[in-house]
Specification:
Length: 402
């Protein structure tokens, strides 16, 4: 219902409170779930006063009920228990205070809690918050470790003592918070966010030394799970409860079975690292020594070869082969030249024997006409024609008489 107001016509505070009460009266009865943080049962009083708190948020509200309503569950309900209340919201206008009047109270059993956690686990799994690829690797040697744990708890002592025993130089940034009860979830979430935002913190450990299923419920809260999933710094879950794993174990980057195991997984042991370095150094020396021995043996085998011991021997052998081939080539060339000379002599003799000049030397002559043609028959010339006569020693001219 809208109310018309202005700076000139404001509503009194009492009227606003009365209107809020009217709106709340229209809400009707509702079922509310929460955790009982305060319980007041005064002897002889017919009304029981409760404070119901939301574990995931810093919100609480007062609850009143008749004694007979509470006596029905008094044996199973106490401070810290989770309950479901069927109640009617009420607004106390004079004080401007909201309260609930309970008509029925039901305790939330462990089985029901586990069923709800299983549904929440499936929902978060579908979102990918538990996927292995989202896990961040832990640093080999963290310089500053954030620790979220209870004040003066055995979990804090186990983590600090074991980590410093393994690596004395390691430093811690500790946040002491409640690890069970109604204030656990918001304070653990705040501590995790503070450590994640702190410069220099390399890894965050959330530790608790085990407990019942009800005691570990804060570490399965959706708000805490989403806060850890949003962290940039790797988170280690060390709740120390083997039978039932809280949801924090699934979203954390590493799960440790106990706080002591978390210290061992996060901080390397200085003695083990020194021993590992010594073993690797010895292994490197053996490898280098084996390599040198193998190379020395190879060098000795190479020096034992005849080509290395007497390098001129191969040259001498090849020089002899070259000399023999050279002599062979000379002989072959000389033989070919002699044969060619003989063939040339014979050819020259044949040419000389067939040459016209040789015929002329035997007293013959060659008659040529003026055009250079040789005279082969008498009818080729005429009387008075001048012919050229060639003999062995020269030439002269003749005149045909008849």
């Amino acid at each position: 219902m809208a109310v018309n107001t202005s700076a000139e016509a404001p509503l009194p505070v009492g009227e606003v409170s009365r209107l809020i009460g009217r709106w709340i009266d229209r809400l009707g009865a509702v079922w509310v779930e929460g955790q009982i943080t305060q319980l007041s049962r005064r002897p002889g009083a017919g009304v029981v006063f409760l404070t119901l708190r939301d574990p995931s948020h810093d919100i609480s509200v007062g609850v009143t009920c008749y004694r007979q309503v509470f006596d029905a569950v008094a044996d199973v309900v106490s401070e810290g228990a989770r309950v479901v209340v069927h109640c009617k919201p009420e607004w106390y206008a004079p004080r401007g205070q909201l309260s609930l009047r309970a008509a029925e109270i039901r305790p939330v059993g462990v089985g029901e809690l586990l069923a709800r956690l299983e549904q929440l686990k499936k929902s978060l799994t579908r979102e990918g918050l538990f996927a292995p690829e989202r896990k961040k690797p832990l640093p080999f040697l963290p310089h500053l470790i954030g620790l979220v744990c209870g004040r003066a708890s055995a979990a804090e002592r186990d983590v600090l003592e074991n980590a410093r025993h393994r690596w004395p130089a390691v430093r811690f940034e500790v946040r002491n918070v409640p690890v069970q009860g109604v204030h656990a979830v918001p304070q653990v979430v705040q501590a995790v966010k503070e450590l994640d935002a702190t410069d220099g913190v390399d890894v965050i450990i959330v530790a608790r030394g085990g407990g019942s299923v009800e005691d570990l419920l804060p570490f399965s809260d959706e708000q805490l799970v989403r806060a850890v999933a949003a962290c940039r710094t790797p988170v280690v879950s060390a709740i120390g409860h083997e039978p039932d794993n809280p949801l924090l174990d699934h979203v954390a980057d590493l799960r440790a079975s106990t706080p002591t195991d978390a210290a061992k997984k996060v901080v390397p042991d200085v003695g083990e690292e020194f021993e590992r370095v010594r073993m690797l150094s010895d292994r490197a020396r053996r490898c280098v020594r084996a390599l040198l021995d193998r190379e020395e043996r190879g060098l000795a085998h190479a020096l034992a070869r005849p080509s290395i011991q007497d390098p001129h021997r191969m040259i001498d052998v090849r020089a002899g082969e070259v000399t023999a081939l050279l002599e062979r080539g000379r002989r072959s060339l000389r033989h070919q030249l002699d044969r060619a000379d003989s063939e040339l002599t014979h050819t020259h003799a044949r040419v000389v024997a067939l040459s016209p000049a040789a015929t002329l030397k035997r007293g013959y002559a060659v008659l040529q006409r003026a055009d250079g043609h040789a005279v082969r028959a008498p009818d080729e010339v005429e009387a008075g024609e001048v012919l050229r006569a060639r003999v062995s020693e020269g030439e002269f001219t003749v005149t045909v008489d008849a």
